[in-house]
Design a protein that fits this description.
461 residues, nine-stranded mixed beta sheet, eight-stranded antiparallel beta sheet, globular
């Protein structure tokens, strides 16, 4: 196969006529563009987009793609399984939805579904596995947020504030070069700093709501457009501070990204980069940074279902072939509060409500039992009573979906100790930050333990 390239700084994709199986790849340069004053060497970066296993779901004869890409889509995008871009929100019929930033890719290897019968209503549990994580969805559609390719809207929701030493603007309403432009993932937008000192001493800063862990930070210095790159000052040397942790970074004067590795044990709520030296621009004496991208170490799963659906589980019998281990639901409201529900098939379920800052205001827990256990297979389960009736039916919102969140808060009942608590969990390490217990819940659990023990004895007989 032969390929011709243009003499431009750009990526060229070579599409294969069909899926080709191969063990060896050879790239040979037949001709080149002469670089005046150059060394005579050629350089290139080659990326492969390998096809994963065919996704065994094909519910309505969809031909599911093993790879999603938004490389040619401006800004954040939502891509469903048949490849249609949904820029604002998924349509109600989508069985799987992946939210990816521009240029992000997600390899999807396996997708499964298991039928769930709730009285006369049939629904499904969907399971998804890819190269980053595993997730589940109950009955509606699965919304995957991969933290390594965090979409702009998701990243911005984690940022409390953007700060800088200043930015270029004609008047107060001019936000074209605002510091947030350096964190939007779009190389065609950028922050432009002060003219004084050519930008030396200028800084960019973001403050997160919660401490973050980061594997690496990618910085694109200068205006990442071929006709603008040399006109503005480019960063030559800078100091990064993750809270108080300093990192000195040197840059080449090339239109290429600089990747900074971050030690795995560093957690920070504030990121600040200060320019120490610059490469002078040919037209303007102002610094410019196109992008600063974070590889944050916490994958978020968002599972969505119709908001009126879950309350109908109260007192109902659920029959399932393969019920996932647990799920967590959060109802979010415009005032910043939310109601969260946590449950699983190992006899624990809880609910709580937060204030606008995310602090738990009220919470309760109920136990349910599993019936029909045989040969290690759970054939169904029956809730003991109306599940959180006082909480469930006071939920009011105009939104027609509720959002699942697999971390942040969890309520758990330990079958051996009978203790119940609200645990605040941050990050992928699931480290418990806070525990809250109440005498009422302890008393409730003791009563339920006695009833549960009696129930087990009866079933053994």
């Amino acid at each position: 196969m032969k390929a011709d390239f243009r003499d431009k700084i750009e990526t060229q994709s070579i599409g294969l006529p069909k899926v080709v199986n191969f063990r060896k790849f050879t790239f040979r340069i037949d001709d080149y563009y002469y670089s005046e004053g150059g060394s005579g060497n050629c350089a290139a970066e080659i990326q492969f987009f390998l096809k994963g296993k065919r996704i065994p779901i094909d519910i309505e004869n969809y031909q599911y793609k093993p790879q999603y890409s938004t490389e040619r889509t401006a800004g954040s995008a939502v891509v469903n399984t048949d490849g249609i871009s949904l820029l604002d929100k998924p349509d109600a019929g989508a069985k799987t939805v992946s939210r990816l930033a521009k240029g992000a890719r997600l390899n999807l290897y396996e997708m499964t579904r298991s039928p769930v019968q709730i009285d006369n209503t049939c629904s499904y549990w969907f399971g998804v596995e890819n190269d980053q994580f595993r997730g589940y969805c109950f009955g509606y559609y699965l919304d995957i947020l991969d933290s390594g390719d965090t979409p702009n809207y998701s990243f911005n929701s984690m940022v409390k504030d953007f700060n800088s030493s200043g930015f270029l603007q004609k008047d107060e309403s001019d936000l074209r070069f605002h510091p947030a432009k350096a964190f939007d993932g779009d190389p065609h937008s950028f922050w432009i700093g002060n003219e004084k000192n050519g930008g030396i001493g200028d800084y960019l800063e973001i403050i997160f709501f919660k401490p973050q862990q980061c594997g690496e930070i990618e910085i694109r210095p200068g205006a990442f457009q071929e006709d603008l790159f040399g006109k503005y000052n480019r960063v030559k040397k800078a100091t990064i501070r993750l809270d108080a942790f300093p990192i000195t970074v040197d840059f080449t004067d090339l239109m290429e990204s600089r990747v900074v590795k971050i030690p795995g044990d560093i957690k920070f709520s504030k990121f600040k980069i200060t320019i120490d030296e610059v490469y002078p621009g040919g037209a303007y004496n102002r610094p410019c940074i196109s992008d600063i991208l974070f590889d944050l170490r916490s994958t978020s799963y968002s599972f969505r279902i119709p908001i009126g659906f879950l309350p109908n589980l109260s007192g109902k019998s659920i029959h399932t072939a393969a019920l996932p281990y647990f799920y967590s639901v959060s109802y979010y409201f415009p005032d910043g509060t939310y109601v969260a529900i946590f449950g699983g098939y190992e006899k624990h379920m809880g609910i709580w409500k937060t204030d606008a800052e995310g602090n738990v205001e009220t919470y309760a827990a109920k136990r349910y039992y599993i019936k029909g256990i045989g040969d290690g297979v759970d054939t169904g389960m029956q809730f003991e009573s109306q599940l959180f009736e006082d909480y469930m039916y006071t939920v009011e919102t105009s939104n027609n979906v509720c959002k699942f969140n697999m971390h942040d808060f969890t309520i758990d009942i330990n079958d051996e100790t009978g203790r119940c608590g609200v645990y605040e969990i941050q990050g992928s390490d699931s480290e418990v930050r806070n525990t809250m217990l109440t005498p009422e819940i302890e008393k409730y659990i003791e009563e339920k333990k006695a009833r549960y023990k009696e129930f087990i004895e009866q079933n053994r007989k």
